[in-house]
Structure formats: structure tokens, C-alpha cells
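Narrative progress, year one. The postdoctoral researcher (J.K.) led the effort to move from monomer predictions toward full complexes, under supervision of the PI. The following entry was the first complex the group processed end to end, covering 662 residues in total.
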Amino acid sequence: MNEKREFTTPSGIPRKVFYGPADWNGSRYGEHVSDPGVFPFTRGVKHEGYRRKLWTMRQYSGFGTAQESNARYRYLLEQGQTGLSVALDLPTQLGYDSDDPRAEEEVGRVGVAIDTLEDMERLFTGIRLDEITTSFTINATAAVLLAMYVSVAKRQGADLRRISGTIQNDILKEYVSRGTWIYPVEASLRLIVDTIEYCANEVPRFNAISVAGAHFRDAGATAVQELAFTLLDGVTYVERCLARGLPIDSFASNISFFFYTHSDFFEEIAKYRAARRIWANVMRERFSAQDPRSWAFRFGLVCGGSTLQAEQPINNAIRVAYEAMASIFGGASSIFTAAWDEPFAIPTQQSAELALRTQQILAFETGSAEVADPLGGSYYVESLTDATEREVLALMEEVEAQGGMVPCIERGYIQQLISDEAYQRQRRLESGEEIIVGVNRFRTEDATRKLELFQVDDSSVHRQIESLRAVRQRRDEARAKRALEALLTATGSEENLMPPLIEAVESLCTLGEICNLLRGVFGEFREPIVI
Amino acid sequence: MRIVIAKPGLDGHDRGAKVIARALADSGAEVIYTGLRQTPEQIAATVVQEDADVVGLSMLSGAHVSLSRKLIACLHAQGAGEVPVLVGGAIPPADVETLRALGVSDVFPTGSPLSEVVAAFMRYGRGGPQR
């Protein structure tokens, strides 16, 4: 520590030796900070903090077939997990069936394969959708997965007005950093507005979008960039919904957010506190939302990601524990603590269990969850919250001055800013200016040799393909054909695509058939090449 | 020296690929980055078309063994079998030898120092020394 010449947060905000009343004196407490549960929600969206309801412990999980993933979900629920988070394989995220030649290497690898409604039904065998909330990390194909989820809920006899959960459904950040885009920007935005409108009317407790900064962050963005770009994406989606004619208060509370908590403890806390304040102001002042629920910035997050290291990997459990603590001081609604072995593979049952226990220890042993925003009023935390807010607003203004997120993404500007940061950070690590324990300091040799890692069972790919082909064989072909034709017709109108999508999945049209049809109509996004 | 950096398969995590591409460009190489979701056939065609001295693949989805095998077959089929292939990404330790046995010249799992990766590209790009 004492060899550092300059003390700043990773976003470059200067850090003083200590903070006092000159940095923050509480004189604007009422309007600028306020009590928990009170506008602008700097101290949290709930007055009672975590007392009535802890954050949701939601471990991202899924692999192989629906049956195998269902077994993992039931295990996690038995261990005290309180919500589900479905990891989908790349073919599902990109709209390819499991027997598509482009899918061959990837079926069931980074998540579960979902080809038809029957897979979705198997995924939730023995799990009531009106008793649990489920989050899907799904974007380009989110509308199709939502259609399947809604259909499963209906088949279970659940009341659609009571089921709750989240589809990520945030395509803008996919163009920048996560890469699971399919269609061009405008077509994707239409699908997103369709899902938001559909949920607002039919599934009002479902979050139709989770605007995600997490992936900017993991691609290299600083905390300030992560927050600024995410809020701007949120603004873009809100504007598109308003342009459709949706009243702001009819959908604003269906928007949630998603982040990474990285390693700098106080900067992360300040990021979340600033986020709530900025969003509340944007919603009330810029978009004239009247309903307090529309002002409330609710978010889930991941601890881990690119802060996890392949060297001395058990250390990752410690990193994640600190990140989880910062996350609850930041007021997260749901938390996914990644397992220590994720730099190599998806977690084993044992490492997944330890990751969940990390949150349970935090919740039940440390006392940290009993007071709302315990760091509120700290000279340092309030001052850092203010500084973060200033930096984020300045960056938002800069991007809006260039036309906002859509044109800045299309010409690769946001990608360039993030890749610049990633490269600078790598150089700081190479030079030793920034230290990561076990990586560029305190190294030991061969620490990773004897890991027991999770192996995807290759036979599950064959089972998946067989069951997909069996569905195609036995479905009512005429009904499936009619459903696809109706969907095609709807794409040429201004009609909401959710009802024809639901009919298509209920007719057992496959994800690939539906997405290939949409590819034919909408075309595909062309990636600007930026390094 | 001409280097192709490629993202095969469906994986969209390109931070590593871009950081490596940039470091190689800073070291004086001409770098062609393919962008996402390239098939092995497309990558091999790029290698031939760009007359690359070495090709680097970045993969984080777990599909690295089969994709590397396919790329090497495609390079041979397109008459570029001699171009060294380097692989980086989320590669479990046990797969490193498997990849080498397929004909991958070198493997850089997550966390490999940039300087080592760059040095390897430069070494293989100049035609050796092969290990």
C-alpha cells in the first residue's frame, strides 16, 4: 500500500487520508439523501431495509439438459436459496436449436439447453412458479423464453398476475460487451418494448427488463462507466416505451437493474447509493413519473466475474465474501455470489454450495442486515457517493450530447471507451502498479493442478437432440405451421409480438424455428470491429 | 508480422481477445481481429486471405477442444496447416495437454501475463523456435 504514489478509486476519484465535515456535513440531508424508503432513495428503496425481507439469494445456475438443471435447482432450494437464476446455453441465447450445426460445440455448456416449451416445463418440474421468482439471463431471445415461461405458469394453473421474475432482455449492452445479439438495434428494441408492454398488461409483477451494467463492467468499464452507460440504456428503453404510447407509471416499476460488485469496497457502495439517487431524479424530473414505485431503483448483482482469478483459486471465495458485504451495504435486492472455481468451469455442487453459504453467513451471522444503510452519514461514503454521482452525470451528459446510447453503440464509441479501460488496467497489472494477490504478488507455482472441476456430461447433448427431434415428430405440424405464419404476419404489422409468440411456443415450434423466422424478417446486427 | 485474433464459436466474451490484439499491435504486429462468432472455416479463410504468420483463438465457453480441432483441420484443408495456432481463455489445466496434442502450439489460460502471451506470438510468428 505504501508504495502507491496516487490514491484514487479504480474510477479515478481521488481519495483523501480521511474525511470530515468539510467533505460532507449533512446540510442537504432531507432533499439530497433522505431516510431509507424516502425520495431520492439514496439510503435504499425500503424504509425497513432488510428486516422484513432479506435480499434474494439467487445463484446463477444451469447446464446440460432441463432435467439435470432442475435437479441442481431443487438442490439449491433445499439448501436455502430463495430465488432461481437460470443460466442458458449459448445456442438458446442465440436462437439456434440444439441440432443446428452452429450449436454443436456449445449445447448445454455454459447453461441449460431450451429448445421447446417441453424443456421449459421440465426445468420447473416440482417447482411452483407462483411460489418462487425466477430470473433469466436472456436477451436476444428473451421474448421467446418469456412466452415459454408464461405458458408453463399457465399449465401449472398459476395466476399470471401473481407470478414474478425477471428476464434480462437488455440488448443494448449485448452489442457492447456480452455479444449475444442477433437482430439489428431497431428490431431488437421493438421486441423489448413488446415484452414490457405485454408484462405491464398481463404479468404485472414480472420485471420485463433488467438493465444490466454488469457486462460493461466485466468487459473493463470502471464503476462510473458501468453506472453511466446502464442508466443511459435505461433512459433509452423508457423513451422507446413512451414513444409506443405507454404511460410512464404503467411500466416503470417493471424495470430493474443488474450490476457487478467488484473489489473496491467503498466505491461499489457509493455506486449503488448514487445510482438510486440519479434514477429517482431522472424518473421524477425528466419523465414526470408520479408513482413512487416508478422512482425506486431496484437492482440485483453478481459478486465475482472478472475479479475471480485462476491462480490460487480458493482465494476467490474470500473476494466474493467482501464483494457480497459491499453489495448489501449498497442495498441490493438480489445477489448471486459466484463460486471460486468459475474461472475454469461452471461450479461443482460443492463449490456452488459454498457460494450460497457465503451469503447465508453474511445474512445470519454478521448482523450487517439489521440496520438499513448502516454507512449512511459516513463523511467518506457520502462524499464518495456525491463524487460518483457527479462523474456519472458528466459522462451521461457527454454520451447524450453525441446522440445517446444507440448511435454511440452503432459506431463503436462505447466499446472503444471500455476496451481502452480494459487495456489500461491490464497494463497496470503487468507493471505491478495494481496488485492482485496470487496473480502478480504472492504467487505460488502449480497451485491449480489438482482441481476437481465440473464436467458437462457429453451424453446430455445427445439426449437433448433426441428429445428435440421427438417433439418435432409428434407435434401437430399443421398447428405449428399456422402459428409460424401468424407470427410472420404479425412482424409486418405494429401488433405486439407476444401473443403470436405464445401461440408459437404452445404449438411446440422450436426456439430455432422462431428465431430463424425473425432473422429472415429483421436481418442481423453488424458488429463494429473495435479493439 | 501479421496476426489473426479470432473468436470462434458462439461465445461473446471478447475482453481478452481485444486486450491481446491491442498489446500485439502496440508491439508492432499487424493485427486482424475477426469479431465474434466466427466459424472455423471463416477463421481459416481469414488466415489465408490475410497471409497471417500466426493465429490466436480466444474461447471462454468450454468448447475450446472441439473448436481448436476443427480450426486446425480447416487450416490444413485450406493449405495453411503450417500456421501456428495459439489458444487462450477459460481453459481448465487438464485440457492444456489435450490442446497441445491436437497441434495447438501454445495455451494461455486465464491470468497468463500479457508479456508472456505477446512474446509467444512474436516467437511463433517468426517461425519458431517451436517447442
